[in-house]
Design goal:
The structure is a single chain. By secondary structure, this protein is mainly β. It is built from no helices and 19 strands. The protein has one domain: Porin. 0% of the residues lie in helices and 66% in strands. The protein has an 18-stranded antiparallel beta barrel. A hairpin with a 2-residue loop joins strand 9 and strand 10.
């Protein structure tokens, strides 16, 4: 089968993925946890085309999911549709993404006890676009815009959720100080609205990316944000102003031709199902090792600190920890096996016991065009495209993606996984 990197015509694939999972705390509750088995089957179709000046990737998948062990059982539909593309010429580049996904996920919700994580059905639609212009050999400018709409429904319990929507716009200037060091200045504006809040935020970020060697790349960024929230509901009405520093960075180290280590830190303003634009700090580390041509092992851990306004107008802080270990095995040319274990734990600002969950899963996919179709700790990035401080990519909008022998470089379908 020819590489997609050399393809000039459309490459269309269809296939399916099946997954079974066990969790000893399916709803991720502090008290009376319920264990459950779940199973899903998700047929999909992908399409991709890559040339010297353009690339397009598209995915459509619909999943049927069944849950055993809860009372009552919660069966549901999931799915994802997305299209991403880029167009380049000598001095300019366009890129864009549009997509929709539906899947259960842990979200910050409002309960009588306080703001906690609850399992909710999340319907997320988003679109983004960007234009970059190479001024000269050193300077490049970029403008971007994105819109999003998130709709939630509780799976069980008395958790209260609020749909939200908004948009962001911004721009950046990149300066190639040398072949190994790039500087970045970024300014962004975000508007967010829910049933209870209207929020306007501005962020400024300065970043540096440095290629220490062909195998080691590091970046860091610092910034500041200002936000003004107009509260429409709750005990605290009126305007709430907030501001503070932002920090982020990343280290990517190709330990050998078979292994890679990624460490990433970010601080961003993120939509919340609790009705507020939360300030979210995330740190993660992921290690991947290609044991054989068919087997890739992985281990990762992430820590998230979420600061959200409660109904009284107080900024509360919740903490969330995830640790994972897993492997992907190429059974045959078109068959891929994916299996793993995940540990989850949260600590809330409210005086509640700490919920914990142990999750084990195994998936099998037919004809998926990427290394793994499973969303895991080491691959998670920013899904909403909102401004903030985080990793500064060393490559710019004009760089051509290259497929390396390790399979760690970004392929066409890197943004997609099967929910």
């Amino acid at each position: 089968m020819p590489s997609l990197a050399a393809a000039q015509e459309w490459a269309i694939r269809s296939g399916a993925a099946a997954r079974t999972e066990y969790s000893d705390n399916y709803f991720f509750t502090s008290d009376n946890p319920e264990s459950a088995f779940s199973a899903s089957i998700s047929p999909f179709v992908t399409a991709a085309r890559r040339t010297e000046t353009s690339e397009v990737a598209a995915l459509l998948t619909v999943g049927a999911n069944k849950v055993w062990g809860t009372n009552p059982n919660f069966d549901y539909w999931s799915g994802r549709v997305g299209v991403s593309g880029a167009l380049r010429d000598e001095r300019s580049a366009w890129r864009g993404d549009v997509g929709f996904s539906r899947a259960p996920s842990l979200q910050s919700t409002t309960t009588p006890e306080g703001i906690i994580l609850s399992l909710v059905y999340t319907n997320a639609a988003a679109a983004s676009g960007a234009y970059a212009y190479q001024v000269d050999d050193r300077w490049a400018l970029e403008a971007r815009v994105s819109v999003y709409d998130n709709r939630y429904s509780s799976v069980q319990g008395d958790a209260s959720v609020q749909d939200n929507r908004g948009y962001s716009a911004g721009g950046s200037a990149r300066y190639a100080f040398s072949e190994r060091t790039h500087l970045l200045v970024d300014v962004g504006y975000t508007y967010y609205t829910s049933d209870s809040d209207d929020d306007n935020s501005v962020t400024t970020v300065f970043g540096v990316a440095h290629s220490v060697s062909p195998d080691l790349k590091v970046s860091g960024s610092v910034g500041y944000f200002w936000s003004e929230t107009e509260r429409q509901q709750g005990a605290s009405l009126g305007r709430v102003r907030d501001n503070g520093p932002l920090f982020g960075g990343e280290m990517t180290y190709l330990v050998s031709d078979r292994s890679q280590l990624v460490i990433r830190v970010s601080e961003k303003l993120t939509p919340s199902a609790a009705g507020d634009l939360s300030r979210q700090d995330t740190a993660l580390a992921g290690f991947s090792y290609r044991a054989t041509d068919r087997l890739i092992g992985r281990v990762g851990v992430s820590y998230t600190r979420d600061k959200v306004l409660d109904t009284a107008g107080r900024r509360v802080t919740n903490n969330y920890l995830v640790a994972e270990i897993g492997a992907t095995y190429q059974l045959a040319e078109r068959w891929t096996l994916d299996a793993g274990y995940r540990y989850q734990q949260s600590r809330y600002a409210a005086e509640l016991s700490e919920p914990r969950a142990n999750v084990a899963f195994i998936s099998i996919g037919y004809n998926w065009p990427d290394a793994s179709f499973t969303n895991w700790v080491g691959s998670r990035g920013d899904s909403s495209g909102l401004p903030g401080a985080g990793p500064v990519p060393f490559t710019d909008a004009f760089a051509r993606p290259v497929e390396g022998p390790t399979g760690f470089d970004a392929p066409l379908f890197e943004p997609y996984f099967i929910p």
